[in-house]
């Protein structure tokens, strides 16, 4: 299942840590913050914007 986020929603979402914009990685089902280096999961179509649930970019999401 591929994640989809409406463009208008993606425009208003921000990283809770850095307050920077997020970009969608639909294949990985994540919202990426390049500034903080965090990837937030999208579960059942809902972005989980909790720093505790994010993974550092460059780490294996299945580890």
Automatic annotation (TrEMBL):
PANTHER family: PROTEIN PREY, MITOCHONDRIAL, ZGC:162634. Belongs to the UPF0434 family. It holds the Pfam family Trm112p. This is UPF0434 protein RIF23_08790.
